[in-house]
Each structure stands twice: as C-alpha cells, then as structure tokens.
Amino acid sequence: MSAQKTLLVTGFTPFPGMPVNPTALFIRRFPRIIGFNIRNVRLHYAVLPATWRGRQAVTQPLIDRLGPDAVIHFGADGKRSGINIETLAVNRANQVRCDAEGRLPGTAYLAQPAERARRATLAPKRLRDAAARTGAAVSLSTDAGDYLCNATLWDTLGRELPAVFVHVPRLNRGRYDRRPDYPLLERAARAVVCEAAQTLR
C-alpha cells in the first residue's frame, strides 16, 4: 500500500464586515461529517486567524508542522453571490482594509514586486465540477482580491504545494436573499474536500 497522503483544510475566523464566518463553521463540523480519513488520505482541519500577523505566526508554522501533500483554503467574501474556485493569487496587499486586529499589512506587496502572480495547482476545474454537482452556483475566478484570502493562497503556492482557495459568500439572511443557504454551502464545500482527496490517491 502506498504511503498515506495528507490534506490540510482551513477556514478563517471572523473579520471586519464578516461577524460570522461560514468557513469557520465548516472546519468545526467537517471532522464529524467528513471525518479524518478518506481512503488513504488523512485530513487535517484548522481555523486560521484573519490577521496579517497570522500569516507568519500561525499559518506557515502549521504547514511546516503538518507537512501536507495538498492544501484547500476556504474563505468568505461578503461581496460574492456564489462560490468561486480561485485560480490565481496576485502579489498585492490591501493598504486600506484592516484585519481582525485592526492592522494593515506592512507593504503593498506580498513579496518582491518582480513576481506578479501564482496559479492555483490543486485541480480547480475538478473541484468546481464536484461542487456544482451539489446544485450550488460555482465558477472559476481569477480575482482572489487583495486581502488575507489572496495572501494565504499566495504563501501556500510559494511552497510549491498543490493548493487552491475557495471563496464562499456570507451567510444567507432570509427568504429574499439570493445567496445560497448554509446547508448548500456546506454540501458544496464538502464535495470540494472529497474531490481533492480523490486527486491525491
């Protein structure tokens, strides 16, 4: 039997404008509804702090410690109406929007300006198709923004790990809200995780 592969799945804590982050709910519930093993793939779950300081203090040490074979990052964006599989991270950091600690990044770039973009490497089309089969509205995106979601994908891709970022909208607020409700978001996110595990087998 081949060596067991590992898949790290992350979400984020709340941040300004997102008092309830659905991706933190995913990570809280996935150990029960998905478990820690899919065939020969071991799953690890973590909620990351929505802070610029957390990039180096939490996220990178976590990846160092676990040594995953692939990473799925989930994050929420209040401006999205559907689910986006991000295919691109850009070398840009928002200098206006504060993080959960009220801080801004130190510079407008995530790394030396010469490198402009990094492409997602964990089967974006397969993950989109898997999520879409749940009935959710899902599309590929080349705009991960310039906040912590983009920065987290940028950092992980820089480690030459198969990685992808999945943006979900904020929680549905009622019957006239066209955004998907939480159960559908969770089913789509679960489908993404299970499909990603299949790519590692």
Automatic annotation (TrEMBL):
**GO cellular component entries:** cytosol
At the top level, the lineage of the source is: Bacteria
The UniProt keyword set, sorted, is:
Cytoplasm, Hydrolase, Protease, Thiol protease
> What GO biological process terms does the UniProt entry carry, in alphabetical order?
proteolysis
| Molecular function terms, GO-annotated | pyroglutamyl-peptidase activity
Q: Which Gene3D superfamilies match?
A: Peptidase C15, pyroglutamyl peptidase I-like
Query: PANTHER family per the record?
Result: PROTEASE FAMILY C15 PYROGLUTAMYL-PEPTIDASE I-RELATED, PYROGLUTAMYL-PEPTIDASE I
Task: Give the family per the record.
Answer: Belongs to the peptidase C15 family.
User: What is this protein identified as?
Assistant: Pyrrolidone-carboxylate peptidase
